[in-house]
Amino acid sequence: MVSTDSIVTDVKVQDIKPKDDAEKLEPSPLDAHYDPAFVKKTIRMVDWRMLPLLGLLYSVALIDRTNLGIAYTAGMVEDLGIAIGERYSIASMIYFFPYILLQIPGNIILRFLGARSWLTICVVGWGAAQLGMAFVPTWGYLCLCRVFLGVFESGFFPSLVFIVTTWYKRYEVQKRLALFYLSSIVIASFSSILAFGFTQLAGRAGLDGWQWIFLIEGALTIALGILTWFFIPDFPDKSKFLNEEQRKMILDRVEADRGDSIPDTMTWPKLWKHLADPSDTKWTRCTIAFMFLASTVPAYAMGFFITIILEGMGFSESLSLILTAPPGVFAAASCFFFAWISDKTRKRAMWLAVQNCICIAGLVIATYSNSNPVRYFGLFLVNAGATGCVPGVLAYSANNIRSHTKRAVQTAVIIASGGVGGIMASTVFRQKDYPRYVNGMWTTIGLQLMMMVLLCITTYIFKTRNRLRREGVLGPLEGAEDFYYTT
């Protein structure tokens, strides 16, 4: 473990001064203190050690929380009577209550137990809950398993985002978040085809096709949880797979970029301070949390309902499962493009608004077109617009805060708001509105429009504060002498 005395001996935060609201577009002066080949090799080493497994784990998490729609189409509706009343919406929604409530405790536990131990507990725990769904006799027991799924998944995603943001500079974050997120979208999209294969095991061992989906996917998740223990790296200051020089370089880059390479200790007073922050930074957390909610509603709606919507277009069960994949692949490509251009231009709000427009266009087409191929194209646009906004909003948040404790609290609050988005998606897309779900579609459109308004407001306020800081009217932003907001 590198000592705090050895960190940032050659460069200070004050050495890096922004030229405009987006900071300089050229590389940080810090990198000149290290051999470029050494920097590139180390960053790639971190990328390969962390991103593939995290991406796979998040893929499995996304599959496990949204595969109810696939199981519904694969026969669960008859066996558990889940189409009666609002049972399907309740089973989808109930997962999110523990998921929301346990976000902040999860990030606090993360710092005490370490990344490897905490993520292993989360993955094995939700894998067991997923496997248990294969043997539920009634829809009530299914709901109970969904509650346990929410309990264990609640600690995973905010911890994952928190860990990633501690390893990279601010304008390297969104590409990384997008990489594991888009990989999860691709894998989750093809999971419907894989699930179709699992359904062919119907009758084996006395299990129906939908039971095999939960059984195999649950067992796979538990196996990945065991791999997590052996391969997931901890925080930069505790990592063991880097040598001392590499670790110091990683920490130096983060310190020079935003001044929080060394974690500050979480205490109860500090937790309450961040939660009930009386300063004018509280509005930022609330605003970005709403943006994340607006982004997750269409994302969850597609996860829960795309196979059902396709079946409502007249496609067969097998074709509905197969046609779920292409919109996800398209969304992954779009997600990475917008992440790349956002990091390259060092602009967040503008590209988020573009993706809101894409999502709105898709929602209108999918709702009102009378042609099934055109409606299907609309689902491509909905998926693309919603998918890219999820890592985009997280990067927007991460770029505009400092300190590990504040980052832990804000990340948890924002991702918890995504759980609220999941509840909304599972309730506003009502069974009685099948097959077009007009009520749910218009609710989602309204959220996208509201998000665009909030993006305009945050951009104006951040730009104004950056200007006043340069003019000396405001004191240090976020408590750092040369910190400027990203717009």
TrEMBL record:
Residues covered by the Major facilitator superfamily (MFS) profile domain: 50-467
Entry's transmembrane regions: 50-68, 88-110, 117-141, 147-167, 179-198, 210-232, 288-310, 322-342, 349-368, 374-396, 408-429, 441-462
Topology in the lipid bilayer: Multi-pass membrane protein
Name of a matching Pfam family: MFS_1
Molecular function via GO: transmembrane transporter activity
An annotated GO cellular component: membrane
Places the protein is found: Membrane
Alphabetical UniProt keywords: Membrane, Transmembrane, Transmembrane helix, Transport
Superkingdom classification of source: Eukaryota
InterPro entries per the UniProt record, alphabetical: MFS (IPR011701), MFS_dom (IPR020846), MFS_trans_sf (IPR036259)
SUPFAM superfamilies to which the protein is assigned, alphabetical: MFS general substrate transporter
Protein name: Major facilitator superfamily (MFS) profile domain-containing protein
Organism expressing this protein natively: Hebeloma cylindrosporum
